[in-house]
Write a structure and sequence with these properties.
303 residues, alpha+beta, six-stranded antiparallel beta sheet, five-stranded antiparallel beta sheet, 6 helices, 19% strand
Amino acid sequence: MEQAVHFMPLTVNGPRKRGARYLITALSTLLPIAVGVAILHWQAERTLQQSTAQTAQEAVRQFDLMLDNAALAVQALLPLAGQPCDNATQLALREQVTRGPFVRATTLSWQKNIYCSSLFGGSYASPVNPQDYVEGQLWLMNGNPVTPDTAVLVYRRVDGDQAALTSIDGYHLTNTLRLISRYARLVLQVGPNWLAADGKVHDSPVPVFAVAHHQLASERYPYRVEAGMPAGEVWRYMQARYPALFSLVVFFGLLAGLLAHWLQKRSSAPTQELRRRWAPTSSSLTSNRWCAAIPVNGPAARC
C-alpha cells in the first residue's frame, strides 16, 4: 500500500531590508523628539497665557489707581463748579494738581462749558461734548492745546449743571504699558480709542495678538486692557527658557534610535546564522525529500 508522505517545508525568514531598518531607526529617534518638543511648546504657551493674564490684571490695577486719584481730585473740586473763576478757585484747582499723584490738570465746567482751568485760569473756555466721554466719564484724547501730540486721559464727573474734570498725562499711561512686562504687549482701550506703548492714540480696530491674547475690563471704570504677544513668541520663549530641556529631549531621541538599531541587529543575527548553516545542505535536503517520496515496494534507489 502506498502511503503519501507529507513534508513541512523548512523556510527561513531573512532579515529586514536595510531601508526598513533605517526607517525604523529614524522613527525611533524622531518620535521622542517630536513628542518632547510638542510638550515643551504646550507648556510654554500655557505659561505665556498665564503671564499675559497676570500682566493685564496688574495693568488694570495701575490704571484704576490713577483714576482713583483723579476721582478724589474731582470729588473735591465738584462743589466749586459754577463759582467765579477767581484766585481762590484757581488756587484750589492748582492745589489738586500739586497734591494728587498722576493728576496733570484740573478744570471746572458749568452747563457743559469749561470756564476755569488750572493751566489757563479763566482765560480759556471750551464747550463740552458729553458724547466724547465713554459713559460720561472717560475720554482718551490724542492731546490738548498745551501738548497736542501727547495722549491725555480725561476723567469727568457731573452733578446737574456742575462738572469737574481732571486729566492724566499720557506719560504715566505709556510707562505702565511699557514697563509692566518684558514679553507682553499692552493696549489701553477707552471706547473707540486705544493707546499702545508708543504713546499714540489710535481710533482704528484694536490689534489682535497672535499669542496668548487676553482681554480684561475694569470693574470700576469704563475701559479695558488688551494683552498678548506677537507671532513666534512661543518659540523665542522656549529657546530662552528651555535650552537644557531641548538638549535632554534630543539626547533621549538619539538614545532611543541607537537602542532600536541595536535591537534590530541583535534580532537579525540568529536568522543570518541559520541561513549560513543551512545553505550548503540545501541540495541534500531536496534529495532527501525525493527519496522519501518513493514507495516502499518500489525499485531500490540509492539516496
